[in-house]
Amino acid sequence: EKSDAQAQIDMIDRVLEFGEVQNPMHVLDVGCGVGGSSRHIARKFPGATVTGVTLSPAQQASATQRSLAAGLDARTSFQVADALSLPFDDASFDLLWSLESGEHMPRKEEWLTECRRVLKPGGRLLIATWTHKDTQDLSCGHRGNAELTDKEKRLLDKVCKYYHLPEWVSVGDYKAIAQRLQFTDIKSDDWTPSVAPFWPAVWRSALSWRGFKG
Length: 214
Known about the structure:
The structure is a single chain. This protein is of the alpha/beta class. 42% of the residues lie in helices and 15% in strands. The chain contains nine helices and five strands. It has helices spanning 4-18, 36-44, 57-69, 108-118, 150-163, 171-180, 192-195, 199-207, 209-213, and strands at residues 26-30, 49-54, 76-80, 93-99, 119-128. The protein has a five-stranded parallel beta sheet with strand order 3-2-1-4-5. β1 (26-30), α2 and β2 form a beta-alpha-beta unit. The model is unreliable at 209-214 (pLDDT under 50).
């Protein structure tokens, strides 16, 4: 049976493959947590430098310490920063990476506008995030979506409560925003069957003492 850690590594590799990423030089990991994706990308692409941003000083400190222990401190760095107001110049990165952090962003269009600003021309933005099912209603918020049932909304509200999340959006919402911001070569996929077996571990973490403490 595959471990949770190996499942995460496999997912990172699958997202990179899906995005057809080849030899990035300057990578921004948006919502980096303790830097697991950043370190894996640095190992996978020896020519890359990876910068991670998180709102949590504790995560930033842990990510820095873990990279030092892994011998990757020269090619990875971590900052406390707001993803909706990134402290970087325009066109700074050729790859923007966001793994399971988009669901935490309260204003999706504002966030993607910042991503567009710091992305170099021809660069790639890869987002793997939690979304609700696709609907024709692109309300960019589950509570006002006329096509979701009350039961579905209550379930999404429950997840929001335990994970302190803003409203859920759909893949269609993301694609509509990306089109407005003039991203090109937009593509998406639904990996629910692959990640669903991992959800019991996600719920356990949310309901643990560590999960309550943050």
